[in-house]
Amino acid sequence: MAKTRDRGPAALPGGAPGLNDDIGETMRLQLYRCQVELRQAEQRAFDLFLQNLVKGTSHLSLGQEAIAAGFACAMKKGDLSFCTYRGHAHTLARGVPIEKVLGELMQRDNGLMRGKGGSMHLTSEEHGVMGSYAIIGAHLPIACGAALTFQYKGTDEVAVCFFGDGTTNIGAFHEALNFAAIWKLPVVFVCENNLYMEYTPIGEVTAVEHPAADRASAYGLERILIDGNDADVVYRTAQTAYAKARAGNGPSLIECLTYRHSGHSRADPAKYRPEGELERWKEKDPIKVYRERLKQFGVKDSTMADIDKDVARIVDEATEACKASPMPPNEIAFTDVYADGGWAWRN
């Protein structure tokens, strides 16, 4: 059996793409800014937790920003994102304001859901974010349902479903893939393989080395395994999968190799990781990689520094706005519970 826990960043598939202008400087700067926003916003969320301003637990995507940025930047309005409990990055990448996300984590009235959803249930229909799901694998069949709706209506939108490596051993993963393949649904399944399912190395409990890519052939799908820490690679792969889905040629299953810099959640010190593993993966930090990529294309350090500074300003302003916002009023506790806005049980 493959031991995934020993796989370091040197084993990532493919290399840096050659210099070309298929993406263009405007999009590359957008990809860079998106990754910086995700990094700074989530780091601030962690800092606020240490100040006891974020209650409960939450799951950060520090180190995995290239996946959320690459797939989101390749989407168009009308496409839908389905996230796991590790959904802050995907929510922000679709354009939800940082203040709305931090406010929700801090249980403030200015939060995305007025403080009622919390870290694991971020949702914004306006931005195409159709929920973060705390139940492992629960959202894969739901993404298929959204894709079936697009197919039935004859539109060209795509449902994009993000999940961790552990989800590949859940029955819903296989059921959703089978259903999507049979019906040729416009859905893209994205496995964020950060090597660990909570605290257990995925390679110690899975019969194949690559838990998503190595199972694609069972459903008649192409084996797609990519470097999830390279935003250009992710963006190009997303474009290809979206084009396939929009053309009516069915789903794609993409496994993105990446690594989370922190533990599974705030309560996890991640002491189960082999010594030196985190340090090796930080050499493949997606933002570090992308800064070097932009330099290859002649983007000045000052341009990137200006982006970093502007994002820091926005995060600071969002933080202060959240601190000043009141807690949600008691009278909204039983609103937004059912479709009609009420809470009473109905026969």
Describe it for me?
The structure is a single chain. The protein has helices at residues 25-50, 65-74, 88-93, 98-105, 139-153, 171-183, 231-246, 277-282, 286-296, 301-324, and strands at residues 80-84, 129-133, 159-164, 187-193, 196-197, 200-201, 224-227, 252-257. The strands form 2 sheets. Strands 2-1-3-4-8-7 form a 6-stranded parallel beta sheet, with helices on both faces. The protein has a two-stranded antiparallel sheet with strand order 5-6. The chain has one domain (24-317): Thiamin diphosphate (ThDP)-binding fold, Pyr/PP domains (Rossmann fold, 3-Layer(aba) Sandwich), CATH 3.40.50. The radius of gyration is 20 Å and the shape is globular. A hairpin with a 2-residue loop joins strand 5 and strand 6. With 347 residues, it is α/β, with parallel strands linked by helices. The protein contains 10 helices and 8 strands. 48% of the residues are buried.
- Could you give the distance between the termini? 52 Å
Strand order of the largest sheet: 2-1-3-4-8-7
Helix vs. strand class: alpha/beta
The CATH homologous superfamily is called Thiamin diphosphate (ThDP)-binding fold, Pyr/PP domains
Count of all domains: 1
- Kindly report the CATH topology: Rossmann fold
Low-confidence residue ranges: none
CATH classification class: Alpha Beta
Give the radius of gyration: 20 Å
Task: Describe the main β-sheet briefly.
Answer: 6 strands, parallel
Quick one: overall form? globular
The fraction of residues assigned to DSSP E strands is 5-15%
How are helices and strands ordered from N to C?
Answer: HHEHHEHEHEEEEHEHHH
- Average predicted local confidence, pLDDT: 91
Q: How many separate helices? A: 10
User: What level of helicity do the residues show?
Assistant: 25-40%
CATH architecture: 3-Layer(aba) Sandwich
Overall number of strands: 8
